[in-house]
């Protein structure tokens, strides 16, 4: 009598992220998946969760030990904004990745059960495969857009690719008393964070803890780099960029009050374009902006066309929708107050609040 065939085993579970072998499996899965982004990498979601005092989670569907689906998560707790599972935390993407044969509905069911078990009344999914609307799930495609295009063949072609009015601003920045530095060392990080703190205060937004930015720099290694623009030895604009599959993404950046008059931001972004091409990049991802915002218009001025982003959110029965959108009129007074804070106070209080925004 022939022995019966063993049934293939499919299961959904959380991986042990303290196990280096499991982290290596995830990195390999992400490296091979065509839809993966930097925000799927353990170098991102594990690093940023731990740097902000939150918990990283990796929900996977496995078939005979092989990963068929993967959802990176940050379990974020804030006394102000409440508890939420986010994929991916502090990111603009990082949703569910699947392979043929996977069962997304099983992942979403496990995700809801996980949220309830961890007393998280909300879930946010940013990109990837999304659940159908209903049973607590909603979708939005109107709130944010992303901007990207191919890099030009050389420096002059890159300048010519910028629309005339914005190109004139870039030319003025090139003629000014500005210098550019790139790096990953303490000088680069300190300059970036000083500019970043002032920029966020001026926007009325609590700044992230420096540990978060350092964690990303350390986790990504050479795939993360800082470019800063100096005026007479003082940093006035700076951005931390991520590199992924021949694409550069200037992600965390900003400028001081002086940056606008000096056109330092124009020098910064043009500098990133040139530097990225020399690193072998072929595309520039200008990142996410809120639809209709000043940043949205600014990126269009550079000749980038918006592509709407679709996000999904879940609220437990009887729970209010989580609201952290700074465009909400209810937050306008808090934003105005924050803009008036002395920088030293904003820098002290900001990281305590921002670590719970996600």
UniProtKB/TrEMBL annotation:
It holds the Pfam family Acetyltransf_6. Transmembrane segments: none annotated. It comes from the Bacteria. SUPFAM superfamilies: Acyl-CoA N-acyltransferases (Nat). Residues 167-300 form the BioF2-like acetyltransferase domain. Coiled coil: none annotated. InterPro entries: Acyl_CoA_acyltransferase (IPR016181), BioF2-like_GNAT_dom (IPR038740), PEP-CTERM_FemAB-rel (IPR017469), PG_Glycine_Bridge_Synth (IPR050644). PANTHER family: LIPID II:GLYCINE GLYCYLTRANSFERASE. This is FemAB family PEP-CTERM system-associated protein.
């Amino acid at each position: 009598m022939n022995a019966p065939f063993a049934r293939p085993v499919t299961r959904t579970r959380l991986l042990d992220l303290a196990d280096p072998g499991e982290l290596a499996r995830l990195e390999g899965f992400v490296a091979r998946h065509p839809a993966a982004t930097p925000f799927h990498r353990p170098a991102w979601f594990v690093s940023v969760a731990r740097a902000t005092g939150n918990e990283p989670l990796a929900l996977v569907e496995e078939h005979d030990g092989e990963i068929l689906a993967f959802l990176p998560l940050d379990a974020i707790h804030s006394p102000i904004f409440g508890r939420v599972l986010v994929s991916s935390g502090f990111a603009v993407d990082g949703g569910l990745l699947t392979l043929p044969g996977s069962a997304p509905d099983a992942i979403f069911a496990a995700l809801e059960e996980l949220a309830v078990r961890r007393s998280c009344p909300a879930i946010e999914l940013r990109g990837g495969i999304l659940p159908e609307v209903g049973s607590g799930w909603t979708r939005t495609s109107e709130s944010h857009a992303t901007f990207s295009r191919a890099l030009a063949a050389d420096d002059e072609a890159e300048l010519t690719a910028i629309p005339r009015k914005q190109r004139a601003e870039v030319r003025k920045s090139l003629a000014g008393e500005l210098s550019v530095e790139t790096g990953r060392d303490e000088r680069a990080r300190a300059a970036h964070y000083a500019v970043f703190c002032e920029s966020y205060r001026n926007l009325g937004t609590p700044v992230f803890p420096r540990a978060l930015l350092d964690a990303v720099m350390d986790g990504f290694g050479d795939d993360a780099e800082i470019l800063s623009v100096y005026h007479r030895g003082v940093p006035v604009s700076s951005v931390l960029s991520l590199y992924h599959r021949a694409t550069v993404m200037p992600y965390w950046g900003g400028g001081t009050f002086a940056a606008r008059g000096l056109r330092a931001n124009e020098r910064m972004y043009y500098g990133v374009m040139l530097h990225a091409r020399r690193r072998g990049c072929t595309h520039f991802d200008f990142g996410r902006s809120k639809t209709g915002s000043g940043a949205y218009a600014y990126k269009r001025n550079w000749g980038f066309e918006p592509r709407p982003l679709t996000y999904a959110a879940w609220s437990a029965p009887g729970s209010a929708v989580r609201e952290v959108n700074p465009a909400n009129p209810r937050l306008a007074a808090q934003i105005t107050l924050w803009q008036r804070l002395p920088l030293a106070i904003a820098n002290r209080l900001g990281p305590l609040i921002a670590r719970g925004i996600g």
